[in-house]
Design goal:
Layout: H1 13-31, H2 37-58, E1 64-66, E2 71-73, H3 75-96, H4 118-123, H5 133-149, H6 153-170, H7 178-210, H8 215-225, H9 229-245, H10 254-261, H11 264-289, H12 298-316, H13 322-342, H14 351-374, E3 377-379, E4 382-383, H15 393-396, H16 398-412, H17 418-432, H18 436-462, E5 471-472, H19 477-495, H20 498-507
Antiparallel strand pairs: 1-2, 3-4, 3-5
Helix pairs in contact: 1-2, 1-5, 2-3, 2-5, 3-5, 3-11, 3-14, 3-19, 5-6, 5-11, 6-7, 6-11, 7-8, 7-9, 7-10, 9-11, 10-11, 10-13, 11-13, 11-14, 12-13, 12-18, 13-14, 13-17, 13-18, 14-16, 14-17, 14-19, 14-20, 16-18, 16-19, 17-18, 17-19
Length: 512
């Protein structure tokens, strides 16, 4: 006789809220009149993400295993879920921005029209938008929140697919440069399929070695069986699949092309939210399932952290496209985050976990703000993504240049910004665990990466603008809200980070 699993609806409330909103969005897409569909979809998606955020805050302090042991509700998971929901709501506001020109929405009017066809050129001036992006983004946010709470490998794989498939679709929905956008979507899909295959094969090997996909059973088996070759190989393949999602070198090859080709709001969404979700899953897998067998994964993480920092910092110097530069910045920051993963103690709790979670929050807010500024800067009828097009921006719009400079300085880790506080926290955690060589490499990589951030600031303030640009659009209410929140948070988390660090310290607990 099959017994129904115990379900705590209160513990599942954040997931129910966001997935419920996504399903409502699908129904709206099917039955609501097209002419008035956009504001309804925006409202439904925002209600879902904000509702999920409120639910995670109300659950603060909860610790339980629910859904038959498949999901964990704990401090670390709730902190990461709240971060994803908050960043997701800000990303949806960027999706909704149309005030610069209704015909210049980031998203295509009809994705089914062949790129470059007469009908496609005709629709460039249409004020309509492919509103499916909102339920797709809601499903992706729900998948990310499920990803960080999964307590067994099968649920984690399902969450991986739920968050990935919508991203593959919306990456190809750019209104302009559609061929580049569709190429990015295809690359993301193909390489993502390989990453999913690695994860699934690793799952099969771990199940073969332990007889279970539940994290607690895997931990017990790893203690009993020691150096089982199937278990070690399975762990390696699982980590490869997760490192792909986190944009960690050498599994980063999709990142520059997808960041460049996807609509800028989608790039911001991936850079902020997907990073949090991927590292949340990495932390839970390594420290709940394999935390007692550090020898099996610690050298691997140590090595890829160094590779990611070097690749991101060095190759970022050679980029002339701002979106590709921020992509390599993301790769470098993935390496910095892995120093925090190394800095966690054997139990997976304490200052290292808190530092990593704080860094994810700070990085998400900062990079989201940087991409929000990027949507405002234009040359002709397109975004100014080439570095030369940012020359003299400060003389055209001192305020926008100052906000962008703030975000770039935060990404560089300059003191009195959120980026400095986050880097200091993860580097200190690594040093406390004896990984000072890794922290030293991270410091050197930070110094190298600071150059390409400062290069943009020098262009904005000390170069003369070209005759044809750049021009700065007046942001609408959605983008204004995003910039106000991200800029304020970047400064506040740099000057007075104590309260948020305390919350992260209190939440730095995994149950399994």
């Amino acid at each position: 006789m099959i017994e129904a699993p115990d379900l705590s609806l209160a513990a599942l409330a954040p997931l129910l809220f966001i997935f419920g909103a996504a399903c409502v969005g699908v129904l709206v897409e099917a039955f609501w009149p097209r002419d008035t569909r956009h504001p309804v979809q925006v409202s439904v998606a925002l209600v879902g993400t904000v509702g999920a955020l409120v639910c995670t805050l109300l659950l603060a302090g909860s610790r339980e295993i629910t859904a038959g042991g498949a999901l964990a509700v704990d401090g670390a998971g709730l902190f990461l879920q709240a971060t994803i929901a908050g960043l997701g709501a800000l990303s949806l506001l960027l999706f909704a921005e149309r005030s610069l020109d209704p015909a210049r929405s980031a998203f295509v009017t009809s994705a089914a029209v062949p790129a470059g066809s007469p009908r496609d050129r005709e629709l460039l001036t249409s004020t309509r938008v492919q509103t499916e992006v909102y339920p797709l983004a809601s499903f992706a946010i729900g998948g990310m929140m499920l990803f960080t709470a999964a307590n067994d490998l099968l649920i984690m794989f399902v969450a991986l697919e739920v968050l990935s498939l919508p991203l593959y679709l919306i990456s190809g929905m750019a209104r302009r440069r559609r061929l580049l956008s569709q190429e990015a979507a295809v690359k993301y899909f193909l390489l993502g399929a390989f990453a999913s295959a690695f994860f699934l094969y690793g799952l099969a090997l771990v199940y073969g070695a332990t007889g279970s996909v539940r994290f607690s059973d895997i931990r017990s088996a790893s203690l009993a069986d020691g150096t089982d070759i199937l278990l070690v190989l399975g762990l390696a393949l699982l980590v490869v699949g997760l490192l792909f999602k986190a944009s960690v070198a050498p599994f980063h090859t999709w990142t520059p092309d997808v960041y460049q080709g996807a609509p800028t709001p989608v790039t911001a969404f991936m850079a902020a939210c997907t990073k949090v979700a991927a590292f949340g899953a990495i932390l839970r897998l390594l420290y709940v399932a394999f935390g007692t067998a550090e020898w099996t994964w610690r050298p691997l993480v140590y090595g890829v952290a160094i590779v990611s920092m070097i690749v991101g910092a060095v190759l970022g110097l050679t980029q002339t496209d701002l979106k590709r530069m921020l992509a390599y910045s993301s790769i470098a920051h993935a390496g910095f985050l892995l120093t925090g993963v190394i800095g966690l103690g054997a139990g997976g709790e304490g200052s290292g976990l808190a530092a990593t979670m704080f860094y994810l929050l700070a990085y998400g807010l900062t990079t989201l703000g940087a991409f929000a500024v990027l949507t405002l800067i234009r040359v002709g009828d397109g975004e100014a993504t080439h570095l030369s097009q940012w020359a003299g921006l400060a003389s055209r719009s001192p305020l926008v240049a100052a906000v962008m400079a703030l975000f770039l300085l935060a990404l560089a880790g300059i003191p009195l910004t959120a980026g400095f506080t986050g880097k200091f926290a993860v580097f200190r955690a690594a040093i406390e665990e004896g990984a000072w060589p890794l922290a030293l490499v991270a410091l050197l990589a930070s110094a190298v990466a600071a150059f390409f951030y400062l290069r943009v600031i020098v262009l904005m303030y000390f170069s003369s603008p070209a005759a044809d640009g750049p021009t700065v659009g007046v942001p609408g209410l959605p983008t204004t809200i995003v910039l106000a929140i991200t800029a304020t948070a970047t400064v506040a988390l740099g000057i007075v980070p104590g309260s948020v660090l305390d919350v992260a310290e209190q939440a730095a607990i995994f149950v399994g």
